[in-house]
């Protein structure tokens, strides 16, 4: 099931005793894309603006605007976890977020999927709002903030290997730091919402790599349907620019 959560407002934080922070029973990381208001535009392929869990779909479904461009209201600035569990409409929403993020505000959406994907392929570097989202016992602890990009997510792996603190956005500033005891602390500004051992974070990031590989497979299938002549080039471009695969 796809998990979508607010990326800014309405966030629930995991708060327990100090001892519980060190040994959460469930700790997970996911690579996410943040949808923007521009995703509401009618891109030349079908997609959902909203990508909600199944039980929410039943209660929150909005009739599609057209048979080939379905949409759902009220879903701006939420995250989509990139996994192998997405359907093609959800992959289309991710593609709409990618396409809108790399487009100048006054540019019109291309009339065809081929033209829009060619524009993406011509970019020097594809970027999209997103990054790593951390949950403890199913509750969001930290999620990408303003100016964070999915393409930067491997900074978390570099951090575990002794590199600088990864960038997670600002207002509030997302912080991932090492404590004197060697644990990894997550939070915003100067607060620490959760502490975990480095090896546990590394395992969670390994799961992120597996999820991104599965998503890349879905992306390839989506591209074969909508831009068959550009499918291989698109998957290669996004795999490289958005760090969906390990660097070669």
TrEMBL record:
<protein>
    <submittedName>
        <fullName>Uncharacterized protein</fullName>
    </submittedName>
</protein>
